Amino acid sequence: MHVVEKRQLLSAEEISRTLSRLAHEIVEKSGGAQDLALIGVRRRGVPLSQRLAKSISGFAQVEIPVGTLDITLYRDDLSTVGPQPVVQSTDIDFSVDDRDLVIVDDVLYTGRTIRAAMNGLFDLGRPKRVRLLVLIDRGHRELPIEATFIGKTVQTSDTEIVEVRLQEVDREERVMLVDRVP
Amino acid sequence: MLQRLPHLLGIESLSREQIDFFLDQAKPFQEFQRHPLKKLATLRGKTVAIAFFESSTRTRISFTTAAARLGADTMALQAESSSLKKGESLIDTVHTLEAMKPDAIVMRHASSGAPHFVAERLEIPVLNAGDGTHEHPTQALLDALTMRDRKGKLEGLNVTILGDILHSRVARSNIHLLSKFGVEITLCGPSMWVPRELECLAPNLRRVLRIEEALEGADVVMALRVQTERIHEPGLAPDEYIAGYQLTPERLRRAKSDALVLHPGPMIRGLEIDSAVADGPQSCVLEQVTNGLAIRMALLYHLVAGPPADAPHPAKD
Predict the structure, then answer these.
(1) Can you tell me whether residue B228 is helix, strand or coil?
(2) Are the beta carbons of B300 and B48 closer than 8 angstroms?
(3) Side-chain half-sphere of B123: how many Cα atoms within 13 Å?
């Protein structure tokens, strides 16, 4: 089995424009930025949440707290996978109690990652509201979870993979649709 | 990615990379101890047998709490109340425990090598919580974590270990661990407790019988518990130990001004350590306890999470 690149879903410029639009949407749909905080899901949700916060501070002149969430300990497939995934830090240096939280991740697929993220967040306190932002929604949900803010919706097949490549993590900036072929 | 460790039996057989890995993995669990809700479901449905064939308070509570915070259930076996008193053999006791299908066993035993004996005969991970005068690997890991957090790195540190080195599994595990990181180790205590043979344990190891000399320039001073059950051996009265080896504020001044004081507990104030040192600003004793929880959670997570016990063990592939 190997993977082949099928097509580009977003260019660097399109990612930038999409994030700018999403930043405006967050503020607009939140009635301002009161109590707002972003939670980036490791790994690629982290740079995305930081870019969004920077963008919001640029046009709304308000500093949005940003936290980082590692969902490893909340995964539901730990009893089936082989060597245990390495646990990373969760860095949320503000109280989530009564916060208006937006979870930020790169791709929404089965919804299981977001289920784990919500469990993790509720172990830290009781947020006022939790919404979800994703750069790509690729369908195939296995849980009743939907995003409030979506960069781009893409029709995909089971064998395809959406690869979000970001400068901070991958030294490259674009979103690709790749396929696994036998 | 490192190969999964099937058991934690001792420090001696671990590589420096494996030790670093577990110290790094303790970090998220250190943060976790500050969470308002200290309960995960990561090991939900798993059972950890806590088999202490020798009495213990802190290590037993630490492992039990670590398992509970990861969501595992525990079954406890304690020396005082067990069938051991009735003459059952170790292997029969262990097979009985195994028949109740735990997913791991944490064990302490008065005989050196007992966990290795059990590990060879069981299909589940065995975590050594102290065996005789051999090893106490989780204690050495939590000590190293405390030193690394405070000093930035282990490499190049001068660590002085004080007390009954000969009978101490804490000292032995610490020596194995620290020597892998190039730490300069000084062992100090009454000569019968610091025999010359100990120098064979590690390369950068020296014996010093005078405490003043042993503390000179130390970055870390680790005082061991004087095992009063052994102080009746000929040649040493508690008064002599206090006069010669008690860690006092005056003596501690010989060490570096920012030297850390560690003690594995339980401390006997007024014997191996003066209260002013135990409660002083350099003491890391309570930090060690919290770090113990974090390192044990990290170990349980990596050894116990995964396919159930009756599935083929990945480490055996």
Answers:
(1) coil
(2) yes
(3) 13
Determine, yes or no, domain membership for A20: yes
Which residue of B25, B40, B314 is in closest CB contact with A83?
Answer: B314
Give the ipTM of the model, two decimals please. 0.83
| Amino acid identity, position A167 | Q
Average pLDDT on A149-178 reads 96
Strand partners, B47: B73
Residue B86, φ and ψ in degrees, nearest 5: -95, 0
Q: What is the pLDDT of residue B313?
A: 42
How much is the pLDDT for B237?
83
Q: Which numeric CATH code is attached to B16-135+290-307? A: 3.40.50.1370
The total domain count for chain A is 1
Among the partner residues A79, A122, A125, nearest to B306 by beta-carbon distance: A79
pLDDT, tens only, B18-59: 999 999 999 999 999 988 889 999 999 999 999 999 888 899
Range of the domain at A149: 11-74+88-158
Residue B37: the pLDDT is 86
**CA B127 to CA B296: how far, in whole Å?**
10
Is the CB of residue B44 less than 8 Å away from at least one CB of chain A?
A: no
Q: Which CATH class is domain B137-289?
A: alpha beta
**Taking residues A150-165, what's their average pLDDT?**
96
* CB B200 within 8 Å of CB B207: no
Taking an 8 Å Cβ-Cβ cutoff, which residues of chain A contact chain B? 70, 73-74, 78-84, 86-91, 119, 122-125
Asked whether residue A176 is domain-assigned, the answer is: no
Q: Do B308 and A79 touch (CB under 8 A)?
A: yes
Residues B294 and A103: their CA atoms lie apart, in Å, by: 27
Question: Domain for residue A178, yes or no?
Answer: no
Across chain B, the runs of DSSP E, i.e. the strands, are 47-52, 73-78, 104-109, 126-131, 158-162, 184-188, 205-208, 220-223, 260-262
The answer to whether the pTM exceeds 0.95 is no
Residue of A nearest to B315 (CA): A83
Q: What is the mean pLDDT of chain B?
A: 91
Helix (H, G, I), strand (E, B) or coil at A102: strand
**What pLDDT does B2 receive?**
58
